[in-house]
Structures are given as structure tokens and as C-alpha cells.
Design a protein that fits this description.
Strand content: 35-45%
Largest sheet: 5 strands, mixed
Structural class: alpha+beta
Oligomer: single chain
Order of helices and strands: EEEEHHEEHEE
């Protein structure tokens, strides 16, 4: 399968959110995201892997923004000398490094050679903590729980996230991402 290549490592896009969550349907809502993988399919369509960097809040007590001036930044990536794009790329890289270095493939799933993808959503609060970790799509209870634990454990890091900024104020935002498990043959 050929991959599209570009000198730009990712691009920002608006995508249509099409899934059901807690019996409420979201159709036609456009969300800010970063596309991190694009593949061409045999029928000449494109397949995208995206990381959502904002979406709507289900919590009426707290305003969680979908649009912001600057995205939340993973600990260690908020270096003054970095550009906004470099910070976003660092965040993607370091978040994936953190997840895959702390995530343990559950023994039961490994023995059964279970593979699949978990889609997780969490809030990066205006104080940099991680809250409201929610499984949007899972495939195996043990794998789903392992992902949730790794995301919740980010609050135990020495440094917290630098929250997103809107109008020069820190704001809470959702972060949604896929995490894959692949069994060895």
C-alpha cells in the first residue's frame, strides 16, 4: 500500500465527527484535529489517522473548549525556543513515547493473540492535570483498562501538561487519540 509523502510532517484539518457516545449522536460537527497518517487505498480513496485536539464538553459545570489559540503541550515540550509547530510535533512524539513505554500488553490478550485499536478521550484541564478519561472505542476489556490506566497515570509525572491557551488564559480541552495493539504471529 503506497503512502503519501510530504515535506510537511502533518497538517491541521477540520473533520466531521461521526460516532455515537453515551447514546447521544454527534453528526455534522466539525472538530480541530491533526492528521498524522495518510494512506492511499486500492480504490483511490484516502485513509487518515487523526488526533483530535479539541471537541465539545458534556460537563455543564466546566467549559471545555474545542477552539483555542495554542494547543496543550506535553511535559518537556514547552520550550521557549520551539515554534508552535515544533511544540505540537514534540507533544505527539513524547505522548506516544510515554504511552508505549508505560503500556503493558495484557498477558491474557497476548496469549490469545488479540489485536485491535482503542480510542481514548481525556480532558487536559486548565491546571495541566488529566481528567475524565473515557473509552470511546475498545476491543478487549484488559487492553481497554491498560490504556485507561496509562492515561490516568500521567498525573503522576513530575511535570504536568501545559494547558491549551485561549485569549491569553489557560483553558480545558479534550484530547482524543487511537492506541493500537498488535499481536505477534
Amino acid at each position: 500500500m503506497p503512502y503519501l509523502t510530504s515535506s510537511i510532517p502533518y497538517f491541521k484539518a477540520w473533520v466531521r465527527r461521526e460516532y455515537t457516545k453515551n447514546l447521544e449522536e454527534y453528526h455534522g460537527e466539525f472538530l480541530h484535529c491533526m492528521v498524522i497518517g495518510v494512506t492511499t487505498m486500492p480504490n483511490r480513496t484516502l485513509s487518515f489517522q487523526v488526533i483530535f485536539t479539541g471537541c465539545e464538553s458534556d460537563d455543564e459545570d466546566e467549559e471545555i473548549f474545542r477552539r483555542f489559540d495554542r494547543a496543550a503541550v506535553f511535559p518537556g515540550c514547552d520550550v521557549v525556543s520551539m515554534t508552535r509547530v515544533e511544540k505540537e510535533m514534540c507533544t505527539q512524539k513524547e505522548l506516544l513515547n510515554y504511552i508505549y513505554s508505560h503500556l503493558r500488553y495484557p498477558e491474557e490478550a497476548r496469549k490469545k493473540k488479540i489485536s485491535g485499536q482503542v480510542v481514548i478521550e481525556f480532558v487536559i484541564a486548565d491546571d495541566g492535570t488529566i481528567r475524565n478519561v473515557e473509552l470511546l472505542r475498545g476491543f478487549d476489556r484488559a487492553c481497554d483498562n491498560a490504556v485507561i490506566k496509562v492515561i490516568e497515570d500521567m498525573n503522576d509525572l513530575d511535570d504536568l501538561w501545559t494547558p491549551a491557551v485561549l485569549d491569553n488564559e489557560y483553558v480545558s480541552t479534550y484530547y482524543t487519540m487511537p492506541i493500537g495493539f498488535k499481536a505477534l504471529k
